[in-house]
Amino acid sequence: MIPVEIMKKIKRLHIKTSRLATNIFAGDYKSVFKGRGLEFFEVREYVVGDEIRQIDWNVTARTGLAHIKKFVEERELTIMFLLDISGSSGFGSVDRLKRELEAELCAVLASSASKNNDKVGLIMFSDIIEKYIPPKKGRHHNLRLIREVLYTKPNGKGTDIPLAFQFLNMVMKKSCVVFLISDLFAENIRKPLLISSKKHDLIAIRVNDPVDLNLPDVGFVSLKDPETKKRFFINTANKDLRNKYFKQHHEHFEKTDKLLKRLSIDNINISTTGEYVNALVDFFEKRKMRRKGRG
Question: pLDDT for 45-89, tens place per residue?
Fold first, then answer.
């Protein structure tokens, strides 16, 4: 039985993100994700300017008038969240934990999908597959997704993104829209990203915290690695240590950004310190412009 307070929190988050999906992302969502293909819509008479290759020769021969076939984009999509719930997702130095931000992102995107009659599924992973929820539709299904994202405790310690994509490609035989939500502190990700981006419409959402880049000067502190659980002491007053920390993490960020760009994978960077709405709006706007350019 789920405690009443937890259910209230889940419902509040659902209401908030559902409003965002309605007021901000309603039109954008449909315009930026392609359907799975084209389906037949109707046959009508040819008019000047129509594509000659779409002429239906059987109907044309039978009626004596040129007719063309019209097709529309098959809209129903499957949205999959590939969610990193390794130990580092339970960290947050300012406003909220990474996991809480991940839950809001999943909730608002799932609400947008529901309003367009799309299915939504979830794969949560660490260095093992923690939980798989097959794609479905509906409010109750979305509430379950939020609950699982917020309250599932990982059994694994590390982060294995290649394993997550291997599992995704095993359970999802058809192309779908995939949101990889992670801080992307992982190795050996190029090959799985390359393979999966060719099969699916893949978007990376990197959830980060200020401490991921800048170590604050607060003297001696006891730290515990969220993934290995090892505890150690460091002196954050040491400027050389802080500079080394920044350099290593900044290089990792840049390396990952360049990799995603090289593979033509959309990358959204979102911080635990602020709102995610503007970042998602920018993402939708850029995608719309790109689709118009190709149209």
Answer: 888 878 787 888 888 888 888 888 775 455 578 999 999 998 777
- Which long-range CB contacts under 8 A does 274-277 form with residues at least 24 apart? 274/95, 276/101, 276/104, 276/105, 276/108, 277/20, 277/24
Backbone dihedral region for residue 186 (phi beyond 0: left; psi -120 to 50: alpha; all else: beta): beta
Give residue-wise pLDDT tens across range 237-246: 788 878 887 8
CA angle at residue 143 from 181 to 165, to 5 degrees? 30
**pTM confidence score:** 0.78
| Domains of the chain listed by start with CATH number | 4-31+76-294 (3.40.50.410), 40-73 (no CATH)
What's the CA gap between 259 and 262, in Å, rounded? Answer: 5
Strand 78-84 with 119-125, pairing? parallel
3-state DSSP call for residue 209?
A: coil
